[in-house]
Amino acid sequence: MSRHARPARRRLESLPYLRSVAGQAFVLQLLLILVLVTAAVVAVVADARAHSTLDAHRRSLAVAETFAHSPGMARAMSGEKPTSALESHAEAARKRSGVDSVVVFNTRGIRLTHPETPLIGKRIIGPTGLVRDELRGKTISQAFRASQGLSVVSAVPVTKADGTFLGGVSVGVKIQSVHRTVDRRLPMLIGSGAGALVLATGGAALLNRRVRRQTHGLGTAQMTRMYEHHDAVLHSVREGVLVLTADRRLLLVNDEARELLRLAPDAEGRHVGTLGLEPHLTELLTSERHVTDEVHPCGERLLSVNMRSTGRAGAPAGSVVTLRDTTALRVLSDRAVETSERLKLLSDAGVRISSTLELTGTAEKLVDVAVPRFADIAAVELLDPVLRGEEPEPPYEPLAPHRTAVGGTPAEAPLFRVGERVVYTPSTPQSRAVRTGAAVLLQADPTSAGEWPAGEARRLLDHGVHSLITVPLRFRGVTLGLATFWRARHRAPFDETDLAIAGELAVRTAVCVDNARRYTREHTMVTALQRTLLPGGLPDQDAVEAAARYLPSPGGTGGSWFDVIPLPGARVALVVGKVAGQGLHTAATMGRLRTAVQNFSARDVPPDELLSHMDELVTRLDLEHDADAHGTRITGTGCLYAIHDSVSGHCTVARAGDPGLVLAHPDGTVDIPAVPVSPPLGLGGERFEAVGLSLPAASRLVLYTNGLLEGHDRTTDTGLDLVRRALAAEPDLDPDETCRSLFQTVLPPRPSDDVALLVARTRLLGPENVAEWDVPFDPAAVAPLRAACARRLRAWGLEDAVCTTKLIISELITNALRYGAPPLHIRLLRDRRLVCEVSDGSSTAPHMRRAATTDEGGRGLFLVAQYAQRWGTRYTPYGKVIWAETPLDGR
């Protein structure tokens, strides 16, 4: 290398960009592209000029031949004035053909035509040999310097028909004109070359950038050192690395991968399928899917495999695979997973087992949690006192619990049956567990089969059961039952670790079982209390035919009640009420309010007045509870109260709160009477309103609480529609059948509250059983009226009641005449009892008193009370009615 080139090279190498492989490659590519583009432009220009010159030869010769052989050419040249005849034609031919000159000359070489007029008549010029050939009649085409400059000239002879040479036609095309055409295209050629240079340079630059990214601007020496470093690292890392080509051939493998996969020394370059790997690994490596930490067995090892594609920018995609030996880590991971599963099992058990307060439900929750996560078969057995809500007392032998829940036994061959009583002998593990208070682990082999419950050992062994754990359910030192777990042949037997899990499950279950036992006991007590507070049966009376149903709420005891209260005068009161809430306090409050309704009914007040009294009572009771920190308010109680008079067929109804009324007529039509809805009891501030209904005989009154209509997925309107359809579909049902039909067709699958239902079919007392008289307000009218009553009693066949009734009537009329006011009226009703009613226009209440020995009066009402079964007073809008009932023999 010259002494001048060395400094230039040093200057180039001093540039960081040119020290890299990518920079050097870019400069080389740029120079090569520049040379190629320049050479291409020059070649194109030279080729274009050569082709243009050749085209000029062809064009000039063609024009010369055409003009020389044109008709009349020979005659014009033989004429006296050839120039005049040919000059215009020659000039026209020149312009049309685009040549530079069309010259006609004679045999002496004298020009007959020429584009430049001064040259006509002068001799043609050119090389001597060429001119000589032209004058000899030869056809020539050659480039030479003519009169118009350097041109391509073609000459063609003109002859007569007999072949006599007359001269020739010479056509010239200037070389300058030919090159001018090429020169006009030269900018386009140079521009195309420049564009090609720019595109090629841009492509080289992009390629250079990609090479720079891949080589990171490193030189060859640096890349060599890096390759050596990477190769050393690749073969020293404790992780197997495989690089596969797109056709799944092994391109690169490090030492760790060779050892893990036991590859042959010549494995590189071979297809994955020929490496002798296990089928699942071969299938994985030949696939093109992405894999992350997928574990595959390889001999005695567990390999964690990761695989990713190496494809870039649409190139054929190979794969890089990494392998890690995770055998030891897998063992630890399995233990951690097992521990985690056990903790999750205990957590789920704590949540699910405590989600119910029902004994059977608690036992079933334990079985659901344990099977199949902890055992293949599980059974929970509770002692008899626990099922009754009582606390068992030792000793617990003979041990004979009831199987409350079983899970995991095949349906086609049940090993255990729910509800059966199991008797355990003292040698069984269950009895040992109860005696010791600790879990017992037992393997099911022939030597221990005798320790299992009688009749179960063979069945369990036949179904592959190989071990069991039985653990007592103990809480506060009291054994409540047993939980037993079995495992079959496809799982590992129970071990000491499983004993701890079973013990923890039993502890959590025992707490929930004891809570459920206490709840069962309290629920039983509340239910029993409520049953005693509800009517045990409906009273005998003739005003209506009645039937009732009560359904407790799913979550406990509610506060709904119903009642049928006989009233004097062949009347009856129908009641349905609802105390909000559940539990013991609600049941007790319901009993108090029901008693209050009966007591207020004894005063024989109208329905709206009775509800007013109840409203005051509820308010007073709530004030008492406000003084008690543990009291519960009862404001919001609902009540519907109706009085049906079987003599007039009139029914008066009033209601507070939610309880409702539906009326079914004998003809099958169903109405919902427009009974004003007053606020629930205890809110106060508004008066209660009553509405009167006229009911024909055999009408059905349906009184209900909203639990009949409403459910978790049903509204009140939907329930009312169902009630209407049910009553209209079967108009002839008696009250008991109506209750059953409504519970079957209307009651929601999951009622949201308890239900009280009362159905009453009305009766009317016939006119033949009613006798009435208007009485003048005169003591003299007593005797005739008493005689008329006696005649009616004899007509009714009540001879034995004549004397008693006459006495009662006399005393009641006399009392009304003395203390009452007109108008005076008497009525006799023959029902299952004989009722005597005397009404007057005074609201003064009668009082019974005990007369002294010397008193002349004061014994009337005393005698009435002695001879009548019941007597009393009720008030009307126009006064009062004093009534007395006497029994009828045989009725």
Question: Helix and strand layout, with pairings?
Answer:
Elements: H1 5-13, H2 16-19, H3 21-68, H4 73-78, H5 82-97, E1 101-106, H6 128-135, E2 140-146, E3 149-159, E4 165-174, H7 175-215, H8 220-236, E5 240-244, E6 250-253, H9 255-261, H10 279-286, E7 291-298, E8 301-309, E9 319-325, H11 327-353, H12 359-370, E10 377-382, H13 384-387, E11 402-407, H14 429-436, E12 440-443, H15 457-462, E13 467-475, E14 478-487, H16 496-533, E15 544-551, E16 559-567, E17 571-579, H17 584-602, H18 607-627, E18 638-645, E19 650-656, E20 660-664, E21 670-671, E22 677-678, E23 690-694, E24 700-704, H19 716-729, H20 735-745, E25 755-762, E26 770-775, H21 782-795, H22 802-819, E27 824-830, E28 833-840, H23 860-867, E29 870-876, E30 879-887
What does the average pLDDT come to?
80
Indicate the overall shape: elongated
Question: How helical, in percent, are the residues?
Answer: 40-55%
Mind describing the biggest β-sheet?
6 strands, mixed
The helix tally amounts to: 23
- Poorly predicted sequence stretches spanning 5 or more consecutive residues: 851-857
Tally of DSSP β-strands: 30
Structural class: alpha+beta
Q: Could you tell me the strand content as a percent range? A: 15-25%
How many whole angstroms does the radius of gyration measure?
63 Å
How far apart the termini lie comes to: 150 Å
Summarize the structure in words.
About 1% of the residues have low confidence. Helix 11 runs parallel beside helix 16, helix 16 packs parallel to helix 17 and helix 19 crosses helix 20. The chain has 891 residues and is an alpha+beta fold. The protein is built from 23 helices and 30 strands. It starts with a helix and ends with a strand.
